[in-house]
Amino acid sequence: MTFPTFTSTQSGPHARGKELGTDRRRQITGNLAGYTDLFTVAGATGAQVRSWGEQALDRTAIWAPWLAEEIIGIAAGAGLEPWQLAVVNARTEILAAIDAVGHGECSTSVVLPAAGPARTVQTWDWHDHLRDAPMLWEFEPRPGHVVRTFTEAGVLAKIGVNSAGLGVHFNILRHDTDTADLGVPVHLIARRILDEATTVAEAADIARSATVSASTVITAVTASDAASIEISPAGVSAVPPDADGVLMHCNHFLDQELAAGERHATERPGTYDRLRHLRDHVEGLSAEDLNGRALAMLGHAPDDAPVCAHPDLTQPLNQRWETLATIGLDVSAGRMRVHQGGPCQVTEATWQTF
Questions:
Q1: Are 5-98 and 107-353 in the same CATH fold?
Q2: Which residue intervals define the domain Peptidase C45 hydrolase in the entry (predicted)?
């Protein structure tokens, strides 16, 4: 099983978006329908969702007008209104606005070895009814600068690498200052980092330039440097690796000041168990072999930390979680390796190189 891939041939933002939207129309409209269902179950009205989409697009147009143009182009190609594509890109912000909660989510590990490039792996957990949303997308935001991203159909970026040797992992957070007054979507911060940054410091500066309404952590990685860039309306903090070059992150703030407003862990305490699991398996997560790193992540509830999630089909769709992908970045080569599913299904043959 592999994820669908698309390589853009167009260079301008609107044209690039329209090309993607035209080619992936069915997948994009299906992703929008899945999020519409999720928002409805979580308690949002159609009028609220449209207003939030319009607001997200307006904020994006101020912060990065070329990204707003790309969203408009994707919408045109997919036969949708621009606000509808903005809704898909702002799904984290809308879920924060609704104050939606659940018990799944992602785990990320980065190890900077004494010799050789960074060794990374993460699980990406999301709602099982959206398992057909992920895709792999390659494009050149400027000549000679290639970006490859694992994302959801219609979303401008998520986890990825660029040809300058920088990559990003992605985990959701929640903070007391999250608000329904929508700001720049955090997925677009990840996209702009991939488009523009060549260093971890540049990635953090891009994150600090955005006014946000929802929280997340973007772990930026180069061959020899890394930081978990924790983003919230209360501020941005770049958390470095420890003295041994180890940087682990789940779904709670690690920065001491931002952690004072922690929301996610109070409602989803499993994030602490997952972080302990990662720290207890540093040796395996330091392995040069990605397959070994993925297997070191493996843990199932209730007997172990819920790093590898499987949906409980007795629950409503907003409370069903599945590990939809396991991903490692090769920042030196500007590529990623992706496995469809959780660590418990990993073998040497299941990795898709992109």
A1: no
A2: 121-342
